[in-house]
């Protein structure tokens, strides 16, 4: 399988689903009734078309790119029919999109070589898929992780600690996943232990009681899930980078290439 093609398609998907999809569009896609959903679904597919056209400008592979767009529309159309816990639905939706990407890359392993990018006379183009993989890994770790952890914690919302800054917990989660991603990619995973210790010291108070214990357990579950997601995604990113042109990631033991 072409790591270059996979990196580009993965980044296009993550940008379309988690960066350039506003909350109101995502909400409209989940409404009941086709009349309410169809405009949002078409707009969302249009966003993916634009992103795909920029990331993978491949005039000779329009059929494959069209298949990706059509499958994305169909998967999003069927998503409201899924039943089960929020995290299970979220993961099933994303795995379906990922399966289509893998199928396209397996069928067209030379997809990246057909793009207009490869026709540019610049040695830096060979590093473009690596940059795509880094950005995709960061989005998957930080942004997608926020949705996944939010879906996991939704049934436990009544146990959430009261007070605090508005969306303070979400911001802390974003920052901690970003730090973990950087620590692992710079070969400093031991720093994660200090991050856990610092958060534990700052968060937990001496007082007890059932309500306080429930709030602490809520925070522990969310923290461990967030850390686990970030660690897994960071190492998956390193695995993908190992199959791409090196740009000096210390964790891979590869020096920065000469310009």
From TrEMBL:
<dbReference type="InterPro" id="IPR021737">
    <property type="entry name" value="Phage_phiKZ_Orf197"/>
</dbReference>
<feature type="transmembrane region" description="Helical">
    <location>
        <begin position="94"/>
        <end position="112"/>
    </location>
</feature>
<feature type="transmembrane region" description="Helical">
    <location>
        <begin position="174"/>
        <end position="198"/>
    </location>
</feature>
<keyword id="KW-0812">Transmembrane</keyword>
<feature type="transmembrane region" description="Helical">
    <location>
        <begin position="124"/>
        <end position="153"/>
    </location>
</feature>
<keyword id="KW-0472">Membrane</keyword>
<keyword id="KW-1133">Transmembrane helix</keyword>
<feature type="transmembrane region" description="Helical">
    <location>
        <begin position="6"/>
        <end position="26"/>
    </location>
</feature>
<dbReference type="Pfam" id="PF11750">
    <property type="entry name" value="DUF3307"/>
</dbReference>
<protein>
    <submittedName>
        <fullName>DUF3307 domain-containing protein</fullName>
    </submittedName>
</protein>
<feature type="transmembrane region" description="Helical">
    <location>
        <begin position="218"/>
        <end position="242"/>
    </location>
</feature>
